Each structure stands twice: as C-alpha cells, then as structure tokens.
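FAQ: What does the model actually see?

It sees only this:
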Amino acid sequence: MNLNQVTVPSIDVEKSILFYKKLGLQLIVKSLPKYARFECPNGNTTFSIHQVVSVTESQSVWVYFEVENVSEKVSELQSKGITFETTPVEQSWLWIEAKLKDHDGNQIMIYHAGKNRKNPPWRI
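And it is asked to produce this:
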C-alpha cells in the first residue's frame, strides 16, 4: 500500500490554491470552485483541496511537508509573505519542525525527520 493523496477542506479553494502554490506545490487540476489537486515536488504523492461550507477545528487536518533544510525553507516562505506560528524547533521525537496554518485553520508542518521518520531509536 502507498499513500496516494491527502485532501484538506477549504471554504475558498481559489484562495487555497494561491497559498499552496507559495508553499511550492505544483497545481495539476483546477476545477473551481470545488476542487484543486497538486503534485508534491518530490515523490509521487498528490495533495488536494475540496470545498466545504465551513471548517471546524475538529474537521481540520494536520499535514506534514518534509524538506531537507527547515530553516532555509521557512525563510524562503516568510519572504513570500507566509506567517509561521513557530520558528524551527528541535523536537524530542528527533524532528525539526515549524508550524503554520492555512486560511482554513488546517495545521501545516514544515519539517525534517530524515531517517527518524520511519526508523526512530524506539521503533518496534
């Protein structure tokens, strides 16, 4: 089994397209006003946005985008006007991550885990 795609809810798909393009995703399907799909720059995974009437905190999604250099990526995105909730932080689970939210409240993590994503020292 392989993860194909993740879909997040959005009240305004067109506004979300602009946000996720700034993050570096490549738009491949634009079916406004209800749907858009992107390719991730690395690998074969796709990411999509689906229009909803409202997004509550319990419906929001957490999405992790892995990059080689978190600090560098955060600086790049900040220069494009993206605001972060936290700057890069080394976590106890051996990941470096920075948090931000899209305009619908979905939690976005820009992070780097390297080998620790699938093979942490405490792996079973």
